[in-house]
Each structure stands twice: as structure tokens, then as C-alpha cells.
Amino acid sequence: MTVHNARSIGAQHPRVRDLLTLRKDGSPGRIMVEGSWEHDRLLTTAASIDAFFWCPEVATTGVHRIAERATEVYRISEKLLARLSRKTRSDGLISIARLPEWRPHTFEFTNESLVLVADGVEYAGNLGTLIRTADAANADCLVLTSKRARPTHPSVYSASRGTVLSTPILEFDDIPSAAAWLRSHRFRVHLADPAATGTYRVPQYDGPTAFVVGSEGSGLSREWHDEGFDAVSIPMLGQADSLNVALSAGILLFEARARKAGW
């Protein structure tokens, strides 16, 4: 297979060093995308592809479609692929893609609107699943506060099934700013708290609705409780005291979506 605009590069090339940095934790606005289905998803979006790396000894399909979208195209050896890949068995396709930029002032909401707020989420896999869950429930956006896991981590792309490229994500520097933004758009905010006396089945969810879920270890930041929002719980009927953060978010979002849609 021949890709006419591809350049052969080795381990010392600046783009390789750039990709190794992205492989660890990403960088602002850019994410590593690796694999066949991952690139199929990438090509359905308007995301820019800064660089595309392919290994002709391994990659068999999809190369030309990706190369046509990429600003830069590089051919790499199997040895270098093994160093760059995060997979046990690589498809020989790796790209550096641009995440879309979203601004708080560009959003308009209705009574059907849903927003998920993730506070202090620690693990990239959980963050990716939260993004995928928000997409599945047709939430308007995901808001991040007390950010720990980065949306640019490669695991976020995999766990979100690529929806990190299409789900609006807003990051706020502090919790009061996020709370003020939600209030300015008339959101009824519900804090997910296992200790809350009222369950998630009590509210009517008849206006713009936001749920705030906390970190895997310590739950919600005290600052969210200090904002005076109502808290809701998901009853735990067994021995565990809480659910995984993404599972909790899914229950809450789909309950509200069902109420709004009249399911």
C-alpha cells in the first residue's frame, strides 16, 4: 500500500516525542486516537487531525481515508509502533486529533435540557464513561469542576466510544462559577448524595435539570453542598453503600429524560 504524502520517520522525530507525551495524559485540546473503530468514529466528526501515523506492515484498511483528512502523515516501523501503541495488538493506526472548543456563553437551554456536572472525577475511564452516558441521555453538555482526570487522556476516547469529540464539555475554574452559570440559566440542580433522605424519584424534573456527581473516593466537594442545592439519593438495597459514579449518573439522567419525554 502506498500513501503518497507519507514521510518515513524514526523515534527521534519531534512528532514522535509529541505523541509519546499525548500517550501518557494528553495535552490541552489534543487527544491520541488509536485503532480501527476509533478512527471510523473520528472520521464521522469534524475534528481536525493534526498528524496521522501508520505502520504499513500492520495497517490494512482505512489508511487513505484518514490520510486525506490529516495535516501531516507519517509512516512508522513495527518497532516504533510497539513503543507508541497503548494496545496489546495494534491496528497500526494512530492519530493526534483536536478536541472541539466549547464556550459557556454559546449555550441556549429549554425545559427539556439536561446537564451533567462531574466534580473531581479521578479516573480517565470513568470520565470517558460519563461522557458516553451524557451522550446516550442526550444531555446538553458535561460540566467539569475540581478537575482531576483530563478529557484529553487516551483512555477517555476509548471509554467514551469517541463521543468525547461530539459531547460539549465545559470546564470551570471553581465551583461557585459553575453554580452561578447554572443558576443564570434557571437550572434546577440536584446533588447526587448517598446520604440524602429524598430519593431521585421525588423531583418532577419539569424544567432545565442538572445533576452533580462526585469523585470515586470522597464524593462531592463541600462547596457544592454550600451552594444550597437539593440532594437526591439512589437507594442502596444490598450491602454496598454506593454505585459507580458513571452508573449513578446514568440512572439519574435517564430518570429525568424519561420524565421530560413522557416515557
TrEMBL record:
GO terms for biological process: methylation; RNA processing. It comes from the Bacteria. Residues 114-254 form the tRNA/rRNA methyltransferase SpoU type domain. GO terms for molecular function: RNA binding; RNA methyltransferase activity. InterPro entries: Alpha/beta_knot_MTases, Ribosomal_eL30-like_sf, rRNA_Methyltransferase, SpoU_MeTrfase, tRNA_m1G_MTases_N. It holds the Pfam family SpoU_methylase. Keywords: Methyltransferase, Transferase. This is TrmH family RNA methyltransferase. It comes from Kribbella rubisoli.
